[in-house]
Write a structure and sequence with these properties.
Radius of gyration: 32 Å
Strand content: under 5%
CATH architecture of the domain at 180-260 and 269-281: Alpha Horseshoe
Mean pLDDT: 88
Order of helices and strands: HHHHHHHHHHHHHHHHHHHHHHHH
Structural class: mainly alpha
Low-confidence stretches: 1-23
Distance between the termini: 70 Å
Largest sheet: none
């Protein structure tokens, strides 16, 4: 990732370095010979930064100023390996070279080496050389390591030095979110969006914070605002669709989903979850519309099986029994461990008066991890339909032993009373 501003060639290279009275200098002295070389390189660098950097490859031990300037040219050319080597050379010559350390830390960030950045920047903080931008970059590096509390401190230090620094405000918002301090993060998003209302990441974070606080209506409104601003990407639109389905607003949910999936193929998991939601709401038109837009060519067998099972469920709810069974059998051919397909086939068989066949399907489902309890309850219901109450009671007791459920407990109690 790119964080902060790239450190460009600075003016002190022309008029000499600054030494401090308290110790070694933070910036290099520039000799007359180095000044001439740098001026020539800067002239070339106006049109060709790589050529300028190569002019500074002297083949001998370079001064810190020349090595640093070469690093800057390489940085601008995005040749980060050469830039890193040059900055490290400059620091070897001048160990307290602040600008070289700052830029080297940026290189480490670009290479996802958070530890390298943190080590360098902690040295600068300890040396009293940290400014607001450096604290922001240190905060980003700490976040990359999951050290949210330390990152928060870094971003707050940046804001002490520069209260309106946008990068520090957004970083602090993310640090609070990482600590699950969602209400504080929400409060800060208002300040961030006042400075830059078109920040997509902050709108996303704001919606997620509302969601995690179970304030779904406000999450929907945040996503809708981002959508009207043209900032909502496919993931945000799909999340809006999920929330609208949860709020029993299938028409609006369908609109959000179709907008989400229009630009690029959606993930199979997201599509399956959306169609499943429409079927749960018994919105068959919505489910049909979603299914019509699906392209399964790049899907795995298990993903294709899940979609075929949903198609089968749709046909079952539309009372197209034969077509439903065919689709569910096709799903099982692709994924024999699709427990939901087996349970639905058991339901269809029972409704058709084929109790033995229904039991076979539910018994197969009971052997699949994650479906044992639901399958046992279904078997019990089939046995009740056959007036085999003792068998049904044993099956429900087994189900309750595996996972106790209040509605199953009530059903079990009713059956026991019938046996008395």
């Amino acid at each position: 990732m790119r964080t902060g501003r790239c450190w460009m060639v600075v003016g002190w290279l022309f008029w000499g370095g600054l030494a401090t009275a308290s110790g070694p200098p933070f910036e290099p002295e520039v000799s007359a010979a180095d000044r001439r070389l740098l001026q020539a390189a800067f002239a070339v660098g106006q049109t060709n930064v790589v050529a300028a950097a190569e002019m500074l490859e002297t083949g001998t031990r370079r001064s810190a100023a020349v090595a640093f300037a070469a690093g800057n040219f390489y940085f601008q050319a995005e040749e980060y390996t050469s830039a890193q080597r040059s900055y490290e050379e400059a620091i070897a010559v001048l160990p307290r070279f602040r600008a070289a350390k700052a830029n080297l830390g940026r290189i480490y960030l670009l290479r996802d080496d958070a530890a390298g950045t943190i080590g360098l920047y902690q040295e600068l903080v300890a040396d009293g050389q940290a400014d607001a931008d450096l604290y922001v970059l240190l905060g980003h590096a700490l976040q990359m390591q999951g050290r949210a509390v330390s990152a928060e401190t870094a971003f707050r230090n940046a804001l002490l030095l520069q209260p309106d620094l946008y990068e520090a405000l957004t970083g602090l918002t993310q640090a609070l979110f990482m600590q699950e301090r969602y209400q504080e993060a929400l409060s800060l998003t208002r300040e961030v969006l006042a400075l830059q209302p078109e920040n997509q990441d902050v709108w996303r974070l704001r919606a997620n914070a509302f969601l995690l606080l179970e304030r779904h209506a406000q999450a929907i409104r945040s996503l809708e605002t981002a959508r009207r601003l043209g900032l909502a990407d496919a993931d945000m639109l799909a999340l809006q669709g999920d929330l609208l389905l949860h709020a029993s607003q299938p028409v609006d949910a369908l609109d959000a989903y179709q907008a989400a999936f229009a630009g690029a193929p959606a993930s199979p998991e997201r599509v399956v979850r959306a169609i499943d939601g429409f079927l749960l709401l018994d919105d068959l038109d919505g489910a049909q519309a979603m299914l019509a837009d699906v392209d399964m060519q790049a899907w795995s067998d298990a993903e294709r099986a899940a979609l075929l099972r949903l198609q089968g469920q749709l046909h079952w709810q539309q009372e197209h029994v034969g077509r439903a069974e065919t689709l569910l059998q096709e799903a099982l051919q692709l994924n024999p461990l699709d427990g939901r397909a087996l349970l639905l086939l058991a339901t269809i068989a029972e409704a058709s008066g084929q109790a033995e066949r229904a039991l076979l399907y539910s018994e197969r489902a009971a052997r699949i991890s994650g479906y044992e309890v639901e399958a046992l309850v279904q078997q019990a219901q089939i046995e009740v339909g056959r007036q085999r109450y003792a068998r049904a009671i044993r099956l429900l007791e087994d189900a309750q032993t595996r996972r106790a459920q209040p509605h199953v407990a009530r059903y079990l109690e009713q059956l026991r009373k019938m046996q008395m």
